[in-house]
Specification:
By secondary structure, the chain is an alpha/beta fold. Helices cover 23% and strands 28% of the residues. The structure holds zinc ion (2 copies).
């Protein structure tokens, strides 16, 4: 059975109206950018790789004018993904699998650090990323890496402990990840299929939306999973939930 660790890959600051479309612009919010490490007897898996490590120093060059204008990076060097892994006693080459929930810049920015890993993405996400006028952030993901295209739900290690769940809507091939621990508790990393608990409770759809119907269906499916007594949803960018979550070498239990 796997162990599960939450790693903080810095934080993002931006206008609240980007997350809460009904609110008037002018108020900033700060959210964590998480990555999750699954240590399984058959491999070490990262779910999402955060923002490009060099973006804090030169956002214009690494993210481009549009994203650099919307988002500001916060966080010390200890919050860079390679340093978070080093604190766990791991090198990037120890990572055997990378799962990208989707290809926005804050979920795949450090992909290039893992040339030995298999990258597991939904085919719809890869196809859309490669199409003209893509939603994806090309400099973050488009490197010669071992991208594998999945068609739907996927049992990563073949024992039912780590399952990738398609949750499209925010982007065409967004996926979430369910991890079942030896305690029989299950954590479901929603990523941007649900930014925060408030989005789930108040059915708030993200401003960045590819398909409204699919987004609502994905949120409903996640809500049903979260209603199980043995299952906890881990939201994509929820500062309040993050503040009470065990992080780094501490395991989620
Ligand atoms: Zn996103
Ligand atoms: Zn995000």
């Amino acid at each position: 059975m796997p162990t599960l660790h939450a790693l903080c890959c810095g934080r993002l600051r931006f206008d609240r109206s980007l997350f809460f479309p009904g609110e008037a612009p002018g108020t900033e919010m700060t959210v964590p950018v998480p990555s999750f490490l699954v240590v399984h007897p058959r491999g070490k898996l990262l779910f999402d790789t955060g923002v490009d490590c060099l973006a804090a120093d030169d956002p214009q060059a690494r993210l481009g004018t549009r994203l650099a204008g919307l988002f500001r990076m916060a966080g010390g060097a200890d919050e860079l993904l390679p340093n978070q892994l080093a604190a766990m006693g791991l090198l990037p080459d120890d990572i055997t699998h990378v799962v990208n929930s989707h290809l926005h810049f804050d979920h795949c920015g450090c992909n290039a650090l893992f040339p030995r890993a298999k990258f597991l993405l939904q085919r719809a996400e890869l196809d859309a990323a490669r199409a003209p006028r893509s939603h994806a952030h090309d400099p973050s993901w488009n490197h010669p890496l071992d991208y594998r295209a999945l068609d739907g739900e996927h049992d990563v290690f073949g024992d039912g402990s780590v399952i990738l769940l398609p949750t499209p809507g925010h982007t065409p091939g967004h996926q979430s990840m369910s991890v079942r621990l030896s305690s029989d508790r299950t954590f479901v990393m929603t990523a941007d299929a649900c930014y925060t608990q408030a989005h789930l409770d108040r059915e708030i759809l993200p401003t960045s939306l590819w398909d409204t119907g699919q987004m609502i269906a994905s949120m409903d499916a996640l809500r049903k999973l979260g209603e199980r007594s043995d299952t906890e949803l881990v939201f994509g960018h929820d500062a309040q939930q993050w503040a009470r979550m065990p992080q780094g070498t501490a395991t989620l239990t």
